[in-house]
C-alpha cells in the first residue's frame, strides 16, 4: 500500500521533525508515481518517523539541489535531517522568470529549467545552447566538477553552522563511467577533497576507483546483474506524453528505493550514533 506522506513546499505546522530532501529523478516522487511505488524519501521518513519535505526534481542538476535545500530550510523549523542526493555535473540549472513559474510547465520543473551540456535536450533552444558550450569548450569536466564540489562543501559548512543533522550522497554519479579516471584525479586534486567531511558523506569520494560509491554503485552491489532493483526497460512518459526512457530505464524500482532508504537509514544511525 502506498504510504500516505504529506508533501509540501511551504512551511509546515506538523509537530514531527522534518526530513528535507532534494535530488533529481532518483528522489522525485513524480517519476515513481508513474509506476505506482513509493520513493525512498517517503520510506525513510516513515522509518525515522519524520515528516517528509521532498524537493526532488526530475532532470535537475546540482545547483538546483543546493538552492532548493537552502531555500527550504531557510523557512522551515523543527528540522530533523537534511539530505542532498547530488546529480550529474553536466546539468546546468537556472531559475525561470517569475511569470513562467505561474504557467503550467512539463513535470519536474519547480520553477527551474535545466540544460544538459553533454546530451540531446528536450527543446531546440536548449540544444543550441548546449551545442555552443561544447563547440567553444565551455563547461568541460574540470569546470563542472569544481562547481559541484563547491556546492558540496558549501552545503556541508552551512549545515554545520546551522547545527543541523545532514547527509550527502551522489545519486547516479557525477559523470559517466567513461570519465571515471579523469574525474577521480580531479576529485583527488581538488582543494575541497580534504575539506569534505566523509562522516556526513555516504560513499565519499563517490568514485569506485578511489574507494567511493554513488547510489547506483550501492544498487549494483546489492544486485550485480541489475535485474531486480531497477525499472529496466519500462517506457515512461511525462505529462506531455513525451518518452523519458525509450530503451532501458536504470532508475531504481520499488526494491531499489527500499534499498536506498536502508542505506541512508543505516548511515544516519551510524553518523549520529543512534541506538
How would you sum up this structure, described in words?
The chain is α/β, with parallel strands linked by helices. It has one domain (18-223, 255-271): Rossmann fold. Helix content is 36%, strand content 12%. The strands form 2 sheets. The chain has a 5-stranded parallel β-sheet with strand order 2-1-3-6-7, sandwiched between helices. A two-stranded antiparallel ribbon has the order 4-5. Helix 8 (215-222) crosses helix 9 (254-271). Mean pLDDT is 85; it is low at 1-12 and 233-246.
Sheet having the most strands: 5 strands, parallel
Q: Please tell me the total number of domains.
A: 1
Quaternary structure state of the chains depicted: single chain
Tally of alpha and pi helices: 9
Class inferred from helices and paired strands? alpha/beta
Global morphology:
globular
* Overall CATH class: Alpha Beta
**Beta-strand residue fraction:** 5-15%
Distance between the termini: 29 Å
> Radius of gyration over alpha carbons?
18 Å
| Largest beta sheet: strand ordering | 2-1-3-6-7
Strand runs, count? 7
Please trace the helix and strand order, writing H or E for each element: EHHEHEEHEHHEHEHH
Approximately how much helix is present in the residues? 25-40%
Amino acid at each position: 500500500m502506498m504510504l500516505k506522506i504529506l508533501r509540501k513546499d511551504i512551511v509546515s505546522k506538523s509537530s514531527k521533525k522534518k526530513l528535507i530532501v532534494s535530488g533529481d529523478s532518483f528522489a522525485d516522487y513524480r517519476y515513481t508515481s508513474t509506476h505506482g511505488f513509493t520513493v525512498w524519501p517517503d520510506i525513510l521518513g516513515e522509518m525515522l518517523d519524520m515528516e517528509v519535505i521532498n524537493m526532488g526534481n526530475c532532470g535537475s542538476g546540482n545547483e538546483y539541489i543546493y538552492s532548493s535545500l537552502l531555500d527550504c530550510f531557510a523557512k522551515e523549523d523543527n528540522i530533523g535531517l537534511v539530505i542532498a542526493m547530488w546529480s550529474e555535473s553536466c546539468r546546468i540549472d537556472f531559475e525561470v522568470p517569475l511569470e513562467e513559474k505561474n504557467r503550467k510547465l512539463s513535470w519536474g520543473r519547480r520553477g527551474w529549467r535545466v540544460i544538459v551540456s553533454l546530451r540531446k535536450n528536450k527543446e531546440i533552444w536548449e540544444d543550441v545552447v548546449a551545442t555552443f558550450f561544447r563547440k567553444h569548450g565551455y563547461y568541460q569536466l574540470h569546470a563542472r566538477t569544481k562547481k559541484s564540489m563547491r556546492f558540496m562543501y558549501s552545503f556541508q559548512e552551512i549545515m554545520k553552522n546551522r547545527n543541523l543533522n545532514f547527509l550527502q550522497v551522489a545519486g547516479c554519479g557525477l559523470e559517466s563511467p567513461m570519465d571515471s579516471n579523469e574525474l577521480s584525479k580531479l576529485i583527488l586534486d581538488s582543494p575541497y577533497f580534504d575539506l569534505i567531511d566523509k562522516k556526513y558523506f555516504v560513499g565519499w569520494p563517490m568514485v569506485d576507483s578511489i574507494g567511493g560509491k554513488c547510489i547506483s554503485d550501492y544498487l549494483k552491489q546489492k544486485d550485480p546483474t541489475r535485474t531486480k532493483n531497477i525499472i529496466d526497460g519500462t517506457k515512461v512518459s511525462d505529462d506531455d506524453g513525451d518518452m523519458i526512457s525509450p530503451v532501458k530505464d536504470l532508475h531504481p524500482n520499488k526494491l531499489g528505493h527500499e534499498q536506498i532508504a536502508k542505506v541512508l537509514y543505516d548511515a544516519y544511525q551510524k553518523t549520529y550514533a543512534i541506538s
